[in-house]
Specification:
By secondary structure, the chain is mainly β. It contains two helices and 18 strands. The strands form five sheets. Strands 1-2-3-4 form a four-stranded antiparallel sheet. The protein has a four-stranded antiparallel sheet with strand order 5-6-7-8, with no helix packed on it. It has a four-stranded antiparallel sheet with strand order 9-10-11-12, with no helix packed on it. The longest helix has 7 residues. The two termini are 32 Å apart.
Length: 192
Protein backbone atom coordinates (compact mmCIF):
# COMPACT_ATOMS: atom_id res chain seq x y z
CA UNK A 1 0.00 0.00 0.00
CA UNK A 2 1.10 3.57 -0.62
CA UNK A 3 1.89 6.23 1.96
CA UNK A 4 -0.86 8.82 2.51
CA UNK A 5 -0.26 12.31 1.14
CA UNK A 6 -2.67 13.85 3.65
CA UNK A 7 -3.78 12.79 7.15
CA UNK A 8 -6.61 14.47 9.05
CA UNK A 9 -7.42 13.65 12.66
CA UNK A 10 -10.77 14.66 14.12
CA UNK A 11 -11.24 15.30 17.82
CA UNK A 12 -13.92 12.57 18.04
CA UNK A 13 -11.47 9.90 16.88
CA UNK A 14 -11.99 9.85 13.12
CA UNK A 15 -8.86 9.48 10.99
CA UNK A 16 -9.01 10.47 7.31
CA UNK A 17 -6.31 9.75 4.73
CA UNK A 18 -5.83 10.75 1.11
CA UNK A 19 -3.73 8.19 -0.76
CA UNK A 20 -3.36 8.09 -4.55
CA UNK A 21 -6.58 10.06 -4.93
CA UNK A 22 -8.64 7.74 -2.70
CA UNK A 23 -10.12 8.82 0.64
CA UNK A 24 -10.10 6.23 3.46
CA UNK A 25 -11.16 6.65 7.06
CA UNK A 26 -11.43 5.02 10.45
CA UNK A 27 -14.53 5.80 12.50
CA UNK A 28 -12.48 5.64 15.70
CA UNK A 29 -8.73 5.15 15.28
CA UNK A 30 -8.21 4.62 19.05
CA UNK A 31 -10.66 1.71 19.17
CA UNK A 32 -9.22 0.20 15.96
CA UNK A 33 -5.66 0.36 17.34
CA UNK A 34 -6.68 -1.17 20.70
CA UNK A 35 -8.35 -4.05 18.89
CA UNK A 36 -5.15 -4.54 16.89
CA UNK A 37 -6.97 -5.09 13.62
CA UNK A 38 -6.97 -1.66 12.00
CA UNK A 39 -6.87 -3.06 8.43
CA UNK A 40 -10.45 -4.33 8.73
CA UNK A 41 -11.75 -1.08 10.21
CA UNK A 42 -10.73 1.13 7.23
CA UNK A 43 -13.62 2.36 5.12
CA UNK A 44 -13.56 3.96 1.68
CA UNK A 45 -15.39 7.17 0.93
CA UNK A 46 -17.68 7.04 -2.11
CA UNK A 47 -15.72 9.58 -4.13
CA UNK A 48 -13.90 9.48 -7.41
CA UNK A 49 -10.30 10.66 -7.38
CA UNK A 50 -9.68 13.51 -4.85
CA UNK A 51 -6.97 16.15 -5.13
CA UNK A 52 -7.35 17.71 -1.67
CA UNK A 53 -9.21 17.03 1.59
CA UNK A 54 -9.83 19.19 4.67
CA UNK A 55 -11.90 19.04 7.85
CA UNK A 56 -14.44 21.71 8.67
CA UNK A 57 -15.18 23.11 12.14
CA UNK A 58 -17.75 20.38 12.86
CA UNK A 59 -15.48 17.55 11.64
CA UNK A 60 -17.27 17.59 8.31
CA UNK A 61 -15.09 16.52 5.40
CA UNK A 62 -14.44 18.67 2.33
CA UNK A 63 -12.78 17.43 -0.86
CA UNK A 64 -11.85 18.78 -4.26
CA UNK A 65 -11.82 16.72 -7.43
CA UNK A 66 -12.78 17.10 -11.10
CA UNK A 67 -16.48 17.31 -10.14
CA UNK A 68 -15.84 20.39 -8.03
CA UNK A 69 -15.85 21.18 -4.32
CA UNK A 70 -17.56 18.42 -2.32
CA UNK A 71 -18.90 18.73 1.23
CA UNK A 72 -19.68 15.60 3.27
CA UNK A 73 -21.75 16.28 6.38
CA UNK A 74 -23.90 13.92 8.44
CA UNK A 75 -24.01 11.29 5.69
CA UNK A 76 -24.99 13.76 2.96
CA UNK A 77 -22.85 14.77 -0.03
CA UNK A 78 -23.19 18.23 -1.61
CA UNK A 79 -21.24 19.09 -4.77
CA UNK A 80 -20.49 22.71 -5.65
CA UNK A 81 -19.74 23.15 -9.34
CA UNK A 82 -20.30 25.64 -12.17
CA UNK A 83 -23.92 26.36 -11.20
CA UNK A 84 -22.67 27.52 -7.79
CA UNK A 85 -19.96 29.75 -9.29
CA UNK A 86 -17.09 27.25 -9.40
CA UNK A 87 -15.38 27.86 -12.72
CA UNK A 88 -12.90 25.54 -14.38
CA UNK A 89 -9.72 26.46 -12.58
CA UNK A 90 -6.82 24.53 -11.20
CA UNK A 91 -7.14 24.49 -7.41
CA UNK A 92 -3.70 24.69 -5.76
CA UNK A 93 -4.77 24.78 -2.10
CA UNK A 94 -7.88 25.20 0.01
CA UNK A 95 -8.82 25.51 3.64
CA UNK A 96 -11.89 25.70 5.81
CA UNK A 97 -12.11 28.49 8.40
CA UNK A 98 -13.88 28.34 11.77
CA UNK A 99 -17.01 29.95 10.34
CA UNK A 100 -17.30 27.07 7.83
CA UNK A 101 -16.20 29.08 4.79
CA UNK A 102 -14.19 27.22 2.15
CA UNK A 103 -11.30 29.26 0.69
CA UNK A 104 -9.77 28.19 -2.64
CA UNK A 105 -6.40 29.27 -4.03
CA UNK A 106 -6.54 28.71 -7.79
CA UNK A 107 -4.46 29.27 -10.88
CA UNK A 108 -6.26 32.57 -11.47
CA UNK A 109 -8.06 33.85 -8.39
CA UNK A 110 -9.21 33.46 -4.79
CA UNK A 111 -12.62 31.92 -4.18
CA UNK A 112 -14.68 31.84 -0.98
CA UNK A 113 -17.69 29.55 -0.54
CA UNK A 114 -19.95 30.76 2.25
CA UNK A 115 -23.61 29.94 2.85
CA UNK A 116 -23.77 27.92 -0.38
CA UNK A 117 -22.53 30.77 -2.60
CA UNK A 118 -19.09 31.02 -4.16
CA UNK A 119 -17.58 34.47 -4.65
CA UNK A 120 -14.36 35.34 -6.47
CA UNK A 121 -12.08 38.10 -5.25
CA UNK A 122 -9.57 40.10 -7.26
CA UNK A 123 -10.26 37.88 -10.23
CA UNK A 124 -8.22 38.85 -13.26
CA UNK A 125 -5.62 40.93 -11.43
CA UNK A 126 -2.13 39.98 -12.52
CA UNK A 127 -0.70 39.75 -9.01
CA UNK A 128 -3.49 37.36 -8.03
CA UNK A 129 -2.79 34.92 -10.79
CA UNK A 130 -1.29 31.60 -9.92
CA UNK A 131 -2.02 31.42 -6.19
CA UNK A 132 -0.10 28.63 -4.48
CA UNK A 133 -1.04 28.39 -0.79
CA UNK A 134 -3.38 29.54 1.98
CA UNK A 135 -3.20 29.79 5.76
CA UNK A 136 -5.71 31.17 8.28
CA UNK A 137 -4.69 34.65 9.45
CA UNK A 138 -7.61 35.37 11.79
CA UNK A 139 -11.37 35.66 11.75
CA UNK A 140 -12.37 36.12 8.10
CA UNK A 141 -8.73 36.63 6.99
CA UNK A 142 -6.28 34.43 5.13
CA UNK A 143 -2.62 34.59 4.15
CA UNK A 144 -2.19 34.02 0.41
CA UNK A 145 1.03 32.87 -1.26
CA UNK A 146 1.59 33.33 -4.99
CA UNK A 147 3.91 31.92 -7.62
CA UNK A 148 5.25 35.32 -8.71
CA UNK A 149 3.98 38.11 -6.45
CA UNK A 150 4.94 36.94 -2.96
CA UNK A 151 2.71 37.13 0.11
CA UNK A 152 -0.62 38.87 0.71
CA UNK A 153 -3.06 39.05 3.61
CA UNK A 154 -6.64 39.05 2.39
CA UNK A 155 -9.93 39.90 4.08
CA UNK A 156 -13.19 41.00 2.56
CA UNK A 157 -12.28 44.50 3.75
CA UNK A 158 -9.14 44.67 1.63
CA UNK A 159 -5.72 43.33 0.74
CA UNK A 160 -2.37 43.95 2.39
CA UNK A 161 0.68 43.38 0.19
CA UNK A 162 3.79 42.16 2.05
CA UNK A 163 6.08 42.65 -0.91
CA UNK A 164 6.88 46.34 -0.70
CA UNK A 165 10.37 47.72 -0.14
CA UNK A 166 10.00 47.68 3.66
CA UNK A 167 8.88 44.04 3.73
CA UNK A 168 10.91 42.25 1.06
CA UNK A 169 9.70 38.67 0.76
CA UNK A 170 10.62 36.05 -1.79
CA UNK A 171 8.32 36.37 -4.82
CA UNK A 172 7.53 32.64 -5.07
CA UNK A 173 5.83 31.30 -1.94
CA UNK A 174 5.32 27.52 -2.22
CA UNK A 175 3.71 26.96 1.19
CA UNK A 176 2.59 28.92 4.26
CA UNK A 177 2.31 27.56 7.79
CA UNK A 178 1.51 29.39 10.99
CA UNK A 179 3.46 28.32 14.05
CA UNK A 180 3.08 28.94 17.79
CA UNK A 181 2.61 32.59 18.67
CA UNK A 182 1.29 33.38 15.19
CA UNK A 183 4.69 33.32 13.48
CA UNK A 184 4.52 32.57 9.76
CA UNK A 185 6.81 30.07 8.07
CA UNK A 186 7.18 30.42 4.31
CA UNK A 187 8.66 27.83 1.96
CA UNK A 188 10.26 29.75 -0.93
CA UNK A 189 12.90 29.28 -3.65
CA UNK A 190 15.52 30.44 -1.13
CA UNK A 191 14.42 28.10 1.66
CA UNK A 192 12.41 28.88 4.81
Amino acid sequence: SSAPVKLLLGSSGQLWTLTQGRVHYLEDWRKAMLQGDSALAWKHLDLDFADFIALGPHEDLWAINQQGLIHFQEGEKKIYEAEHGLRQRQVRDFLITEDGSAWLATSNGLGVLQDGRLEWYLDGYREWSDLTSLEVAGADEVWVGTRSSGLFKFSRKGVLNYNDSQNPIERHVFEISQGPGGNLWLATHNGL
